[in-house]
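Anyone else keep sequences and structure tokens together like this?

Example one:
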Amino acid sequence: MIKQPDVLLLHFFFSHDYTLENKRVNYEYYEPRCIHESSLSPGVHAILAAELGKHDDAYRFSHYATRLDLDDYNQNTHEGLHTTSMSAAWMNIVYGFGGMRSDGDLLAFTPSLPYSWASFSFRILYRGSVLKMTVDRQAVAMSVISGPPVTLDLFGTRHTIDTTGLTLPMPAERVGTAPA
């Protein structure tokens, strides 16, 4: 059994260096072998699961990471809180369900939406501009709230976003379906 998601961290930190298939193969190999006792593990698994369209896994790991200390899953909260788990709550929204990757030539987004959520939104500061993303079952909207226009990748296509914003349809395969 493995405690930490070290190999999967490579796929996250250097996302553009790995194909989606390579990420899938490694996720499917390491996930059942990871005991998820590290506060880092569920958050990293949630991010990659969202990227891979494994909506149920992404939601389950995100929920686990967010609730780790609140529900004292590892019976060690009395020793202190896990800052990696706290940061995973934010990272699972932005990097996981928002699909943000910042390791390439352009800031990139490939958002997904868990079945049990109607929508989500977040703001980030990027190169002097405040960007806002809103995702729901029908669409993904991005706009610059303040600052200069930003060129980024959204669903694999380059766009320049300004205060006018951009709205694209949400691909059906990026929205989770009802559990069976």
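And example two:
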Amino acid sequence: MKINLDKSKKIAFICSPRLGDTLISMVVVNNLVHNGYLVDVFSDYLYDLRDWFSLVKIKPAIALNNQQDLVNYSVVLHMYESELSKALDDWHKNSFVLAHSPLYKSPMSLVDIQVLVCRDVLDLQNAVRVNGMQPLSELVFCKHKQRIVIHPTSSQKFRSWSAKKFVQLAKKLEDLGFEPKFIVAQNEKEEWQKLVKEAWLPEFKSLSATAAFIYESAFFVGNDSGIGHLASNLGVPTLTLVLRKNLARQWRPNWSCGEIVLPPCWLITRPLKEKFWKYCISVKMVLRKFNLLQQHCAVADKTICGKINDKSFICYAKYFTAAMQDFLKAPDFYIDNSQGPFFKSVVGDTTTVVVVNIGGKEFVVKRYNIKGAGHFLRKCWRRSNAMISWNNVQY
């Protein structure tokens, strides 16, 4: 799938009606703008946040009965299929749904998939995983160092952890000296007023005001939701409760330092997980992960040791972002799909050295390759170069 674009003509970008999808898809818009293309973005969420995206022209979402407003755009891009995209298929010859690309099935985060789409589908140069969101000048990042934003709901009820446990968690955090604050939608407020202290439920007049409040907070804890992506996008460390591992791989908040809480591995099959996951995650489990998140964010030069997919790693805490964790889960995929440059592929292709973009930063990655069965057997009888490197890096 390749889409040809013309820099002399305007592009319309139609965002998803979901906040998380919208923020992720803005990675594509940001790369289009920085490659010299003229883009108008249509989204109600972003229209509320338009002051945070000053480099892009943002308009309210287009209703289905106003689709003719798109007639003067040479290309219309949609992240996902919708009623509007289906309607445009009947008359607009250059209306494309990006999610139709097989890249969306890649074993990596949706943020990084947008970078691949920019490179391989839109043929953009020097694509980055940044969506162009900039904080308002009057705000101070992490101004309230003890304030923890808690988002206890989501767009789908089965994806929300127990309300009772969220309240218990908030009380535990308050006992530890933190200031929990719950963010809920206006139509959810009456229910939550019965569950939590009045001081725990701040009022917000707009999504922009909510973003400002989160930006000046220290941490975010919540379900897998758009507000979690907003917090991560603003650089706030996030702790996200997710019902399935595969869901977390693609959809976890993936811009800043973050941790996820998953139900126990013995809870198998998707229907069982969707029904019982919230009962299998305890307050103690969430607090344990929160402590881990604090440790990762506390000392930039601290090294973190652990295992991901049964592979051991050592990493400086300042680099152990959600993007780095995704890289460590599937390093070969990132190496093979790197934009380069490839520095080295020598000694009969036994070594590959390449620059990999991880979370907006470039890292030089070296991989020791196995040429074949004979090479593998020879390496079995003595320490491999990879093992020697692994031992050396620990000293």
